[in-house]
Design a protein that fits this description.
- By secondary structure, this protein is α/β, with parallel strands linked by helices.
- Among the domains are: 165 residues, FAD/NAD(P)-binding domain (3-Layer(bba) Sandwich); 115 residues, no CATH class.
- α1 runs parallel beside α17 and α3 packs across α4.
- The protein is globular.
- It contains 17 helices and 19 strands.
- It starts with a strand and ends with a helix.
- The strands form 5 sheets. A 7-stranded mixed sheet has the order 7-6-15-16-17-14-18. Strands 9-2-1-13-19 form a 5-stranded parallel sheet, with helices on one face.
- Helix content is 36%, strand content 20%.
- The structure holds flavin-adenine dinucleotide.
């Protein structure tokens, strides 16, 4: 049996591995000259940057792929748990470390913010309960489906609907849980982990802090891009043929079932096709726009990002691996994003992989990945926005950290929403598929199996269960189960 996988994002790589383990002869087609999709890497001189994801949760989903493959004589993918997850800098001068240890984190919240420790512990316990109630159904099962609704977990959700907190915003849940606005802002930020707005996204998204604060945040020993390369090595070891620089031009069905794909002008037969490309570009480009129902066409993309990759002269002990410089008006910042603009005082995220992997920057230097939330591409003047936002970021770093970074920047590269779309095919440059700014988002994602074309499956951030590395890996797991159930 032959399987073709289109796109080598984490969802595509995981699907290729799972299909190879099942005994398929798998070919993975990738339009770029490297694997990984949004999980990318950039080298400028002696600097190495992870260009996309930087926060890594649920690494066991990657381990699971190695476990499935068994002993194939490969070094295991290695990572470590972070002791300090994120260092937060507030505009009023408050600095807070989000320690991985819950007791230490709770006491830091108390000592620095005067937030009662009990609030932190209770909140994280509630997040864990919510994850326990929802994760099997919303993350690891085909959805929406009869199977999910009538499973024991589905029935438990039905009996405890109010516990989902689906009809109040994440901000409202957080405001009721904490007495200090600093704590509320810290936990509101987790809405951005799937490109949403905490003032609109449902309280159900408070499951996200559970992953980071109760289970843990991790970092690969060789940097984020090694997630993709280790999966690529495993796939190849299992016999997957990885064909780079090959844009698939069409998915070819015949009489309601998959016949194959067209690549480089030639049809290649396949019994199964797994598509890892964004469905909002896959339907018009590879299938037919008419096949995507108006329901899915109505869905709004998640937010995007504007990122500066700076090689910076100096070492800055004030900064950790993950750093957040909060804005003074968080609500205003999201309102600006809704107007498809970037705030003049944006929250700035600085990720410095060299803090964990010293070889990522030359001696006496650091590699700064400096990101702000940005709206999806709607034809804005990005040159102008990049210029304006760069000035705002440099000023904010000076104001908040007392670092005049401008003269220390020795090299630079910029990533904008249009570039994200151009490189990865992500519709309008959205980072996480569709946004979760309404209570029905979980019901609005495209399913992992085609309803009209037999043996066509969908993985990755634009389909169920959504964007982010763990969810994309979960989508590949769901497709694996579908294929097993079909007896293929
Ligand atoms: C800047 C940024 C920061 C992020 N931060 C985080 C984070 O901290 N933590 C986290 O978990 N997630 C994060 N994410 C989200 C995460 O990166 C994505 O959800 C995930 O990597 C998407 O994987 P995917 O399987 O959907 O494939 P994608 O990464 O979208 O890859 C799709 C692949 O398909 C290829 N392709 C497209 N069309 C074709 C075609 N016709 N033929 C062949 N190949 C094609 C593309 O070139 C691409 O390689 C971030 C994303 C970005 C961009």
């Amino acid at each position: 049996m032959r399987a073709s996988v289109i796109g080598s994002g984490v969802g595509g790589l995981a699907s290729a591995i799972r299909l190879a383990v099942k005994g398929y002869k798998v070919t993975l087609f990738e339009k770029q000259g490297r694997v990984g999709g949004k999980l990318g890497e950039l080298r400028i001189g002696d600097f190495r940057f992870d260009t996309g994801p930087s926060l890594f949760t649920l690494p066991t989903l990657v381990d699971e792929l190695f476990n499935l493959a068994g002993d194939v004589g490969l070094e295991r993918f290695s990572y470590r748990k972070l002791q300090n997850i994120t260092r937060y800098f507030y505009p009023d001068g408050v600095t807070l470390n989000a320690w991985a240890d819950v007791d230490r984190f709770a006491s830091e919240m108390h000592d620095v913010l005067n937030e009662p420790e009990l609030n932190v512990r209770r909140y994280l316990r509630d997040c864990e309960k919510l994850y326990g109630l929802t994760s099997k159904t919303f993350m690891f099962s085909p959805f929406p489906s009869k199977k999910a609704f009538f499973s024991d977990e589905g029935k438990a959700i039905g009996k405890n609907v109010m516990q989902l907190k689906a009809f109040e915003s994440m901000h409202s849940v957080n405001s009721k849980s904490f007495v200090t606005r600093h704590a509320v802002q810290l936990f509101d930020r987790f809405a951005t982990y799937n490109g949403s707005n905490p003032y609109k996204a449902p309280g159900t998204l408070t499951v996200i802090p559970h992953l980071e604060h109760n289970v843990g945040a991790f970092f690969p020993e060789k940097g984020m891009y090694s997630i993709a390369t280790s999966m690529e090595t495993l796939a190849k070891k299992l016999g997957v043929e990885v064909v780079l620089n090959s844009r698939v031009q069409a998915i070819e069905p015949r009489r309601g079932r998959i016949a194959g794909i067209k690549v480089n002008g030639v049809s290649a037969a396949a019994d199964i096709v797994v598509n890892d490309t964004d469905i909002f570009t896959a339907y018009p480009e590879l299938l037919s726009p008419k096949r995507l129902s108006s329901f899915y066409k109505m869905q709004k993309p998640s937010s995007s990002a504007l990122i500066f990759y700076w090689g910076v002269k100096g070492n800055f002990p004030k900064l950790d691996l993950h750093n957040i410089l909060f804005s003074s008006d968080y609500k205003g910042e999201f309102n600006t994003l809704m107007r498809k603009d970037i705030s003049i005082d944006p929250t700035v995220y600085i990720f410095i992989s060299a803090k964990a992997v010293p070889t990522d920057a030359p001696m006496g230097h650091e590699n700064w990945f400096v990101m702000v939330n940005a709206p999806e591409d709607c034809g804005q003047n990005w040159d102008e926005l990049v210029k304006r936002t760069r000035i705002a970021i440099v000023e904010k770093i000076k104001r908040t950290l007392g670092i005049d970074v401008e003269p220390l920047i020795v090299c630079e590269n910029v990533l904008t929403p249009p570039l994200i779309e151009q490189r990865t095919g992500s519709y309008r440059g959205a980072l996480y598929g569709i946004s979760s700014n309404n209570p029905f988002a979980a019901f609005s994602r495209h399913p992992n199996r085609s309803r009209s074309i037999q043996n066509l499956y969908f993985v990755g951030g634009s389909v169920h269960p959504g964007g982010g590395i763990p969810l994309c890996l979960a989508s590949a797991k769901i497709v694996d189960e579908y294929i097993s159930e079909a007896g293929l």
